[in-house]
Amino acid sequence: MEDRSAATRLIESGALAARIPALAYRLIALGLIATGIIRITGVLTPSPTWNALLYYTVLSNILCLVWTALLAVRTIRDLRADGPRGHSTPSARWSAAVMMAITVTMIVYLVVLVPTAFVQGGDYVPFSLTDNLIHIVTPCLLIVDWLLFVPKGLLRWTDPLRWTLIPYAYLAFALVYGGSGGEFAPGKTYAYPFLDVATLGVGGVARWILVLSVALVAVGYVYVVIDRGLARIGLGR
Q: Is the full-model pTM beyond 0.85?
């Protein structure tokens, strides 16, 4: 009974209050996220693919890299100052916002880009190692970090609407940049197929944006419900 009580005391506010496992996880996550970014940009090769930085996928991965680095630094600082027990997250709401930003990447990849690739054919083959790292592994790493190590019960019901500001900011950039003649790749003035105004028309692009917006906000509310649920049950405590 004493061992069980000691174990359950490590769970506070619906998350593990254990900095050593959190630090180990975040350092591993940092390495995997960095690997994906290095591979997609070719930054360590003689000819980097700098135009990769124009895509939401890469930008959201960089956001995750920066945030995970902040989490690791905060965990190290708290570990030295306060010991191994406790949470180390600068902001639970910002953790959720970053998680949602990269969830957008995973959903668009699995629901839009992969099916489009299979239907249209071409040279692009989805689910390569690099694709998996930046579209699936990084999102899962951020989701698991939030589930395990970030205190729960701090999200607000309006947060999913606020989380849309990150993808919408990119959307505005992509449409303005492409509409003014900017190229995301040689001869390609749109970042993703559902933003191809020349093919889909303004109405077609607007419908895609509406459908994706509804889906993403719905997923955001799933996160809020999970947050509230874990806060209430304390992961079984």
A: yes
- Looking at the 3D structure of the chain, how many domains does it have? 1
pLDDT tens digit sequence for 3-49: 445 445 577 888 999 999 999 999 999 999 999 999 999 999 999 99
The pLDDT tens digits for 67-96 are: 999 999 999 999 999 999 999 999 999 999
DSSP string, the chain: -HHHHHHHTTEETTEE-BHHHHHHHHHHHHHHHHHHHHHHHTTTSSS--GGGGGSHHHHHHHHHHHHHHHHHHHHHHHHHHH-SBS---S-HHHHHHHHHHHHHHHHHIIIIIHHHHHHH-SS--SS-HHHHIIIIIHHHHHHHHHHHHSPSS---TTHHHHHTHHHHHHHHHHHHHHHTT--SBTTB--SSGGG-HHHHHHHHHHHHHHHHHHHHHHHHHHHHHHHHHHHHHGGG-
Domain of 84 in residue numbering reads as: 2-236
From the list 65, 81, 214, 89, the residue with the least C-alpha distance to 151 is 89
